[in-house]
Write a structure and sequence with these properties.
By secondary structure, the protein is an alpha/beta fold. The strands form 2 sheets. It has a 7-stranded parallel beta sheet. It has a 6-stranded parallel beta sheet with strand order 10-9-8-11-12-13, sandwiched between helices. Helix 1 links the parallel strand 1 and strand 2.
């Protein structure tokens, strides 16, 4: 049987921290490499400082690691402005190259696939950093139409690709992400839960948001809503914000001081993967106030842990939640405060949403994500 070589940009799985794209890529690779397939995978790992991590699937006999130490900003700028180096200079020949990070390297031969998570940067490039959203806003309109296929994690993103960038529908596959229910599940070990609460100085119950600290996540709006909540509800639970620093994080922390919420808002910083399910499990409820998302992985993680969810009524989150979460207008801070009050004061409401959330999260698996992605590779190479 002929072996086909699939190149994948997997740099986002490298330490020290993984964000949503890193989790997506890690779980996709972990599951894809558990299947028998006619593919050899060439994983492009690029980091100036970080060595190859000790990840079991990197030792798979069907994997070849192409590790480089090129400064990321220099490589991205070279791809953008010089259209050099072609990806084959870094990986060797591949029949197909799949960028799971969204960066679009020049390519001499083979099919080209990219995963596009959302198009927030096309609507609000001013709320994005230069090497992230601003790069995509400049590059995608010119280069994305030339790609053979685009994978996106929701129908909401698919509609944006068609409407904003005029991508033909037949070139797009909607493949949902998953949730690892071996990690994210209801935990009843009270000693373990207490240990993690002490580690991060958390109260026994709290409101929880999980995201990189950056403008598009609407955390400044959440702070305004929490200030209103304190006006309509005596002594509400504290708010815990879990996530690493992103673009303009300092503005969010300055807003906490401005609204006089320093004793109410707790920042944990980036949390190791093994601690995150425990932090979900101790939350009174989970809140996702984002202005724009392509999928909503933390919502599914919270649901899998049996935590009721309050989410923005934006298309991708409503699609993923499937009527199993309470929704709110992320631009209406008074409504946001009222919904938080409803969630805090109604045990029955939280219990109902917990049960709906558990059933909804069970629909999503990384194994299914991997199976559908492999089918995309097979169709492209077969064609």
């Amino acid at each position: 049987m002929k072996t086909f070589r699939i190149g994948i940009d997997a740099s986002c799985i490298l330490p020290p921290t993984k964000t949503g794209v890193g989790y997506y890529t890690y779980n996709l690779l972990n599951e894809m490499l558990s299947f028998e397939s006619p593919f050899e995978f060439v994983l492009f790992l690029n980091s100036l400082r970080h060595p190859i991590p000790d990840i079991p699937f990197l030792k798979n006999p069907h994997v070849r690691v192409s590790h480089h130490r090129i400064p990321g900003p220099i490589l991205v700028k070279s791809w953008r402005y010089l259209h050099f180096p072609p990806i084959e200079f870094l990986t060797g020949f591949v029949h197909t190259f799949h960028s799971t990070t969204g960066y679009l390297p020049p390519q001499i031969h083979g099919r080209r696939i990219v995963t596009v998570y959302d198009l927030f940067f096309m609507r609000h490039p001013e709320l994005c950093e230069k090497l992230g959203g601003q790069y995509f806003a400049k590059v995608f309109p010119r280069r994305l139409p030339g790609y053979n296929h685009i994978i996106c994690p929701s129908n909401a993103t698919k509609r944006d690709l068609i409407e904003i960038l005029k991508i033909p529908e037949e070139k797009i596959s909607v493949i949902y992400g998953g949730v690892d229910q071996r990690r994210f599940h209801i935990i009843t070990d009270h000693a373990l839960l207490e240990m993690v609460r002490k580690e991060y100085c958390l109260p026994s119950h709290y409101l929880l948001a999980v995201s990189t600290l950056e403008p598009r996540k609407n955390l400044d709006g959440l702070l305004i809503a929490y200030r209103h909540l304190k006006e309509i509800l005596f002594n509400p639970p504290k708010m815990v914000l879990v996530g690493g620093e992103g673009w303009e994080t300092e503005k969010i922390k300055a807003a906490v001081r401005q609204h006089k919420l320093s004793s109410d808002i707790l920042f944990t910083g980036y949390v190791p993967e093994e601690h995150l399910p425990l932090i979900y499990n101790s939350a009174l409820f989970f809140i996702c106030p984002s202005l724009h998302e392509g999928f909503g992985l933390p919502v599914l993680e919270a649901m899998s842990c049996g935590v009721a969810c309050l989410i923005s009524n934006i298309p991708a989150l409503m699609e993923v939640a499937n009527d199993s979460a309470m929704s709110m207008d992320p631009y209406n801070y008074y409504e946001m405060a009222e919904r938080m009050k409803d969630m805090i004061t109604s045990h029955r409401l939280r219990e109902e949403l917990q049960q709906k959330g558990l059933a909804n999260a069970a629909r999503f698996s990384w194994r299914l994500t991997a199976q559908k992605t492999l089918r995309v590779y097979e169709r492209l190479i077969g064609g």
